[in-house]
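TA notes, week 10

Several of you asked for a full example with nothing omitted. So below is the full record: structure tokens for the whole chain, then the designed sequence directly under it. When grading your own attempts, check the secondary structure regions first.
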């Protein structure tokens, strides 16, 4: 069975780590190894994502003993779309959803037009959903209602 993914596993791990960091009180420093162990996610891929978020200013990297990472700004205001673009690249939604290497307007695959018609709404919705919304039950219900109350998103 083919499983459609909006973003990479590395991106998933980063979103989970930021969600974890946001639930912690205070101006806390986090060691990547401890967070990965607590969330049961692979450290190698997660560290790559954390480094990317440090470079773009979402996280602050603190070197040396007792260092680690801390949120550099209000991550709750970041959209899911911004995280996907930062970790997976700006062009992560510009490929053929079927994986066809030569799919384009002039040579479309079987579902090219379906994807093109749906993609902009999806991107707008991903841009509207902020990381802070994912933990807020009331906002989450509004988001789910707005985007069609998908069973997959409601889990």
């Amino acid at each position: 069975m083919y499983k459609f993914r909006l973003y990479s596993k590395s991106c998933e791990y980063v979103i989970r780590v930021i969600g974890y960091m946001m639930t912690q009180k205070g101006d806390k420093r986090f060691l990547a190894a401890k967070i990965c162990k607590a969330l049961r996610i692979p450290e190698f891929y997660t560290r790559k994502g954390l480094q990317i978020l440090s470079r773009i200013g979402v996280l602050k990297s603190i070197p040396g003993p007792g260092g680690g990472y801390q949120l550099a700004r209000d991550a709750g205001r970041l959209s899911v779309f911004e995280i996907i673009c930062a970790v997976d690249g700006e062009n992560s939604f510009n490929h053929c959803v079927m994986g066809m290497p030569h799919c384009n307007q002039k040579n479309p695959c079987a579902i090219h037009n379906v994807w093109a018609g749906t993609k902009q709404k999806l991107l707008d919705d991903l841009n509207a959903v902020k990381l802070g919304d994912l933990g807020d039950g009331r906002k989450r219900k509004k988001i789910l209602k707005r985007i069609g109350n998908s069973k997959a998103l409601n889990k």
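The beta strands are 59-62, 68-71. Use that as a sanity check on your answer.
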